[in-house]
Amino acid sequence: MSLDRRRFLQLTALGIITFADSGCDPWDDLSRETDHPQLLMMMLGPQRVRELGRQYLLTTPSEENSSLLYRNIRESSARFGRGRWFGYRAIDDQIRDDFTEGRTVLVDGWVLSVTEARQAALYSLRPVSPAI
Amino acid sequence: MHTDARTLENGTVLQGDLCIVGAGAAGITIAREFANTPLKVLLLEGGGFEFEQQMQDLYRGEIVGQPYFPLQAAALHYFGGTTNHWAGFCATFDDIDFEKRDWVPHSGWPIRRKDLDPFYARAQTILDLGPYKYDPGDWKMGDADRVPLIGDSRAFSTKMWQFSPPTRFGTKYRNEIVNSPNIHLYTHASVVELEANEELTAVRSARIRTFDGKEYSARAPRFVLCCHAIQNARLLLASKAQAPAGLGNSNDLVGRYFMEHFEMPSAELVLARPQTTKTNLYLMEGLGGPPRGELAITPAAQREHRVLHGTASFEAGNYGDPVKSTFQFIDTLMMNAQRAWRNGGMKGPPPMAAAAAATAPREAVPRFYHLMTRQEQTPNPDSRVTLSAEKDALGVPRARLDWRPSDLDKRSIRTFYQLLGREMGRTGTGRIQIKDWLLSDDKTWPSFISGGWHHMGTARMADDPKQGVVDANCRVHSLSNLYIGGSAVYPTAGAVNPTLTLVALALRLADHLKSSRGLA
């Protein structure tokens, strides 16, 4: 399939805007793995994960603060985790540990680990990226 | 030998050595055990060899309490009984099902699983099942895809099922019964009352009535009621000419502790990595297919969380699709359509299969599964069968069913899926979404509350006459010669369909009756 010049420029411009937008993202200081529950995303899709995040915050309004959510996830890792924070692998381990130890919450009927529920909540607080 | 009771002279007295009332799975099983013995067996069946609307209407009853399936559609009233439309699901009760569990009121059988093992093995043949093996490892059949979904779990194991073709007793065993020289089958012989001796210590005769007003009686030294759990209770309660509360009911237990299996859509499963290898073992491949598994909560988890025994079966589907309970899926319209399809030579796909295909998954390798609960019900004395004020065409009060679940029933289903959700997460298998109806309070049940047409209890087994209607040999405590066959005697329901256990108990009862006559 060929791409005409006009379409190419449109897409390029949109890409630059998106890149610039993410560059200005106030969430930059948060690791992507923290606000991106990757397994849930894969299973349920971003829209449903965002809804689950909103549901979690409705039932846990005291955590409706991104910094607090971020801190809770990290503190939970420090308290229950296996050591330092090492990205996706570590958070996957933390989620599994949550399930093993019974640190689960019901969000819209879903049995979620506390960590991934907070991840979903963080994700729901993230501004929606412009559709491409 | 076979006689249509409508051809007998009014007032005829039938005399035998053993009188079995009801020719369904239990009655036919017991009768066959006496074939070619010196004993004359009277086998009394209310219906004929085919479905008759007038006969079926005798099973119509009144429903109070929780909504329930129309009673006249749940059990069949002709030779072969409900095996004429059963689906053939067979699995054994587990050890824990027989135990007294301090968190399950009124639990505990006077017998153990090991007491039934030899009879389970014999029942396999009667029901055209495979070898007496119910360990998942026995059924891999060289297929690497048939592996348990969750390995290494303290909370869940795989409960294996085998599938009868399904065996229609009315078809398969008809000639054997009819041609037996010592089994005397009487069809259209509806027993309307049992008469006891003056001391009320033994049954003397069974009164039989036909639609044209004739009356006969059957006499024998021993009687076995195999009418079906609701109808057994109804007949005992209706036999009140000499005992106002009914025969065998001096402790007000007859009809109580009616139980069902909850069969309801309860959760959704989404897999982390869609693959067939981990779900093949759990999927139905049609009636009479190869053995399959259901996820079952382990005895250890039942004890730890003080919950009932339950399982989950899988139905591949699409997220958000409406899912029906057993009662919703196979309603009376579906039953009629299925019967018409069978009577019409079984042309084209069966209506049930067509309905199931309508909700088939859109993905080749499904990611979503609907999880269906199958769980025992807490024995509850207030869940009961009594007599209605309305009488049937033969003048017998109709049954009145007051089905009452308990808080523990609902809490157990919810706990099951909470634990399953944890296990799915712990093992990285997937995630579970519990249905809304399970998340409300434990007293509220949805309008689609459903059982599996498994009627149990109503004449429960216990060593103590104050706790049960029959003893460990299925003999009514207060009557020296009256026995009960079938699922009416179950003190608890287990988490599996009742037929295999019912047939095993019938074989055990037959052995007991034979040994008491020196025939063992």
Description:
- The complex is a heterodimer of chains A (132) and B (520).
- With 132 residues, chain A is mostly helical.
- Helix content of chain A is 61%, strand content 6%.
- Chain A contains 6 helices and 2 strands.
- A two-stranded antiparallel sheet of chain A has the order 1-2.
- In chain A, a hairpin with a 2-residue loop joins strand 1 (104-107) and strand 2.
- The longest helix of chain A is centred in the N-terminal third of the chain and has 19 residues, at 5-23.
- Chain A is globular, with a radius of gyration of 17 Å.
- In chain A, 28% of the residues are buried.
- Residues 11-30 of chain A have low confidence and may be disordered.
- Chain B has 520 residues and is α/β, with parallel strands linked by helices.
- Chain B contains 14 helices and 20 strands.
- Chain B has helices at 25-33, 53-56, 71-74, 95-98, 113-126, 169-172, 174-179, 229-238, 299-305, 326-329, 332-343, 351-357, 407-426, 499-516; strands at 2-4, 13-15, 18-21, 41-44, 62-65, 89-90, 156-163, 183-187, 190-196, 203-209, 215-219, 223-225, 262-271, 292-297, 310-317, 368-375, 384-391, 397-403, 430-434, 482-484.
- In chain B, the strands form 4 sheets. Chain B has a 7-stranded antiparallel beta sheet.
- In chain B, strand 9 and strand 10 form a beta hairpin.
- In chain B, helix 1 (25-33) packs parallel to helix 14.
- Chain B is globular, with a radius of gyration of 23 Å.
- Chain B starts with a strand and ends with a helix.
- The model of chain B has no long low-confidence stretch (mean pLDDT 92).
